[in-house]
Structure to design on (102 residues):
């Protein structure tokens, strides 16, 4: 026994497919995505600092020959304690070149 509403539903579905099919067939194939042709250029900024009567702040304080302060020349000037150990600071000063105390 066939249901009367079911035949109408199948017929309606068939007609809707027939009406939409020509529009789908008329569409062309999807266009491929365009490739980005932007060329990235990285430029490094160069800055020349005028050295008139002052030192260039962009150059290191130590030259390769200095090697930095020597431990035997350092003098402990003070310690600033904090409840947070990460915030405690030791203050040093470079002593005389002969390593003696002053």
């Amino acid at each position: 026994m066939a249901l009367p509403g079911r035949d109408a539903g199948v017929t309606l579905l068939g007609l809707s497919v027939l009406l939409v099919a020509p529009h789908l067939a008329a569409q062309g194939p999807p266009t491929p995505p365009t490739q980005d042709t932007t060329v990235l250029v990285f430029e490094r900024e160069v800055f020349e600092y005028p050295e008139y009567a002052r030192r260039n702040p962009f150059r290191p304080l130590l030259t390769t020959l200095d090697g930095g302060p020597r431990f035997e020349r350092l003098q402990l000037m003070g310690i600033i304690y904090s409840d947070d150990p990460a915030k405690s600071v030791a203050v040093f000063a470079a002593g005389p070149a002969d390593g003696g105390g002053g």
